[in-house]
Prior knowledge:
It is a multi-pass membrane protein. By secondary structure, this protein is an all-alpha fold. 73% of the residues lie in helices and 0% in strands. The chain has one domain (2-186): MFS general substrate transporter like domains (Growth Hormone, Chain: A). It has ten helices and no strands.
Amino acid sequence: xxxxxxxxxYGTIESQLRSVPPYVVACSWSIFVAYGSYRTQRRxxxxxxxxxxxxxGASILVGSANKRADYAGLFLLAMGVFPLGPLFLSWANNNAxxxxxxxxxxxxxxxxxxxxxxxxxxxxxxxxxxxxxxGNSILIGAIAGLFISTVVLILYNTWExxxxxxxxxxxxxxxxxxxxxxxxxxxxRFRLTI
Length: 194
């Protein structure tokens, strides 16, 4: 964020200071999203909503040369990306059982999430400043891909829950007691979080 702000023409100290308000707003939004997803017991809808903020913010940064619009875009971008890590981590944990599967899925979510800074270090090159069209365009594409995959995941989880409710997964119970006890998230009575 300070790099983007510096590219907008602000000095080093001013860009550092101007990076604080977007972080504060994004932190407040993240807490609200966490509370809302807990209360509604839904993760996917919150991911979709939050992703729209991110796409809008990055699109403003790509399409506008106005400093005020770009600064507003930073707020939306921060609100759009900061809550995604905790949302995906909780969604993966909700849909994974037993504890060993949950531990592996948590590690996978964190590992995939740490690829972002690696990609961004090569996408936001100093030669692309001050607007960083390439980096922000890659970001729009990544968030759009995330949006589409979330829609697919919501549809799949809904379909799978309906199949389990209709008894189409009850054949998994035709096994010995140890196998049934270790079915975890595959158990026909287990419902996937949407």
